[in-house]
Design goal:
By secondary structure, this protein is mainly beta. Helix content is 5%, strand content 58%.
Length: 329
């Protein structure tokens, strides 16, 4: 599903900020298991042909639904230390296995926390997909028809290698108190993504996320929130930025599409602590997507694809409501 990796790192990273303190690191098991359930509802907002920045209103209350389930495991190796900067620091080795109606995706990762406010991590992801009731898990762009053609699952796969660094801070570390938890987290992630069997510069689709190409790309995530000792554990806002480093990563015939356009998501969020083992995230996504200076026309007797159109500024719209439920064993 769209933004699966982004939301996964958001939930797992944010959990570091509001997780209950353990009475003793010596008695805490190094093994951690959890089940993550995702659900998203998308309204429809048609594109607005114009120049410059604009807003696209909702044109229909329903466009699509998405869902997925992820099994998560990590093994924690504590780093000895009793100072405020080193206590609780660790190395984690982990694995995830996600399945959705249109995709299958395993992932291996490792993280290292040398200080309480800093985490480095990296991972490798593989996945395959199929068409489920019109939702394309894995597809390749056909420039003749202007459509994305499904590819053979398991014969073709999505892959991604990533490296990231996260800075996290809780004001209660300097200003102790149950009601002083103003938390901030910022992550920068370098990713190299691709699809087997695709030439560089040729567009493809993974998990209904279209117009992707092989090569390096980036993801930035920033969260500012206020944590409370209540069932409503946190309220805040999340900002996400992702894109390609250069439009030259796309084939020359797609240069007008603005391949290095930065996609932005601004998401108010609330987090509910249902129990010691159960957490619910609710996010409301407002996205800045590519805008185009004209309506879709026709080429060679068929409707244009956005890849063949001229990008002109950004277009803000309400993208989705996303729910994530985490159960820790």
């Amino acid at each position: 599903m769209k933004k699966t990796i982004a939301l996964a790192f958001f939930a797992l990273g944010l959990s570091l900020l509001f997780a209950e303190e353990e009475k003793s690191n010596d008695t805490k098991s190094p093994h951690a298991f959890s089940i993550i359930s995702d659900f998203a509802y998308y309204p429809k907002s048609d594109a607005v042909a114009a120049g410059g920045e604009r807003f696209a209103p909702m044109t229909s209350p329903y466009k699509s639904l998405e869902a997925g389930v992820t099994g998560h495991y990590d093994y924690t190796l504590p780093i000895p230390g009793k100072s405020a900067l080193t206590q609780g620091n660790n190395v984690k080795l982990g694995a995830e296995f996600q399945i959705s109606p249109a995709t299958l995706k395993p992932r291996l990762f490792m993280s290292f926390s040398p200080a309480a406010f800093l985490v480095f991590d990296g991972g490798i992801t593989f996945g395959t997909g199929w068409n489920f009731m019109g939702a394309q898990g894995l597809a390749s762009y056909n420039p003749t028809t202007g459509e994305y053609d499904d590819v053979s699952p398991f014969k073709n796969c999505f892959y991604e290698f990533d490296l990231g660094a996260t800075f996290q801070f809780d004001a209660a570390a300097l200003w102790p108190g149950d009601w002083h938890h103003i938390v901030f987290m910022s992550t920068y992630r370098f990713r190299y993504s691709g699809m087997t069997g695709q030439a560089d510069g040729h567009p493809w689709c993974w998990a209904a996320d279209y117009n992707r190409v092989n090569g390096p790309n980036y993801y930035v995530n920033m969260i500012l929130g206020y944590q409370m000792p209540l069932r409503l554990a946190m309220a805040g806002v999340q900002a996400e930025f992702d894109g390609y480093y250069s439009d030259r990563q796309f084939d020359e015939k797609y240069r007008a599409f603005d391949g290095d356009f930065c996609r932005i998501n601004i998401s108010p969020l609330v987090v509910f602590s249902l129990s010691k083992k159960d957490t619910l995230f609710v996010l409301f996504y407002f996205e800045r997507r590519r805008g185009f200076d004209s309506e879709k026309g026709y080429v060679n007797g068929r409707e244009q694809n956005y890849l063949e159109m001229n990008c002109s500024g950004g277009e803000w719209y309400f993208k989705r409501i996303a729910l994530r439920y985490i159960h820790n064993f």
